Target: Glycosyltransferase family 4 protein
Amino acid sequence: MRKVLFHLNCFEQGGAERVVSNLVNRLVKDDYEVIAATEWQGEVEFQLDEKVRRIHVGLQKADEGKGRVLKIWLRFHYLRALMKKERPDVVISFTRRPNYRALICALGTGIPVITAVRQDPKSYYNSPVDKILIPLLYRRAAGCVFQTKEQGESFPASLCKKSRIILNPVNHKYIGVSKPKEREKLVVHSGRLVDFKNQLMLLGAFLQVHEKHPDYILKIYGGDSFDGTKEKLEKFIEEHKAGDYMLLMGASDELEKELPKGAVYAFSSDYEGMPNALLEAMALGMPVVATDCPCGGPRTVITHEENGLLIPVGDEKALALALNRLIEDRVLAERLGDEARRISERINEAAILEQWKEYIEEILG
Model:
């Protein structure tokens, strides 16, 4: 039986956490021994299988009054002690800081580390410290899972040669959902209300759409990130007296029921890793308009005019034109949606699990 130790910050609901929770839950069903080593407990987390051993490696209550430098050292100490105690066959870490911690803590242990890069490196790995640590540490990784080819360009060539591109698995509830007999006059969007998703541009574009199609409504599904974006959106809607046709719906656990009602799905991000929200919309068979944002996530899964439409980042006019195009040409829209649905063959949970298992075995050799 393989013993795999996953390291991430927590299982609070988010993109990387969703992927890891899905992965660990399925691995234990395939007779892997799985340890999930996390820094903290989030308020609302994804549920883990009871066979997954959750171990806290963050700061303890007794550490609260200690100095900053000592606290940093303790975070590494706790994780390294766990590695040496458990001796897993492999450590798999997700996102920037957990990747650094895992690579440093594994030094001298002989335990291979597979890192997983989820964000746009040019936006998240761009500090002076990153410029030192990336060439120093990542070359020591046994492998790395990227979501797009473009992500790898910011990392050592030696790492890219032993890396693998694996997309995010989509929850089974988004797969095989029947197409509605008739679409409602809706443009829909899903995602946290956060600055880099640029929902403000979407509002501006929909103003232009509404001028031409006053019977259409925009519904944005997503919880507040508390970075001020929600307030900016509310202010825009109020200033333009658009409350009747621009609706902030909040978070929803039933997107698989709500999104397919829409005529078009709009994706407006300035940058992303591999956006789960976009994958879910495509799996549902939605006609999609998406920004061609770095680090290449939409471009990896969308071929322009074959299974969706790609537009330049931040181009409000292009977004409005593309939305109008799909509203007005329903034959094209449904053809794009039908082709988008085929992505389910690549990103269903079973297919992604097999890719991870194959890569783990390849690394362990």
